[in-house]
Amino acid sequence: MNIYSRIEPTQVLHIINRKRDIQDGRCDLVEPTEFIQCAVLKQANGKTFTPHRHIMQIRNEVYIPQESWVLISGLVQVTFYDLDNTVLHTDILEPGDCSITLQGGHNYLFLQDSVVYEFKTGPYLGQQHDKTFI
Fold first, then answer.
1. What pLDDT score does 130 carry?
2. What share of the chain in percent tops pLDDT 70?
């Protein structure tokens, strides 16, 4: 589910991918122009890929830290904010669900004891360089 800005209606700010909606094969969840990349893969037993490693790249570009959560267990309420810091969408994440924030703000409320994997673009330079609190 793509969640669009009310301020910039063509701009995707947040994404929720539900475990129950995952289909066979590979699905790229994020456009290739974004800094964080995420795909979901549902593959059959025995599927493999050519062994590889990734190449170090030097880039001189402006970027925004982006973040993704994958809920392993528990329940978490997510609140997504628009570009003007107004509440845009609230939802409940269940085990196996994934949230991605490309722009705009977010907040998470743990409704149960929970385990979450959090992924961010880096390098992380600390809160003073990474966040503005709403």
1. 67
2. 95
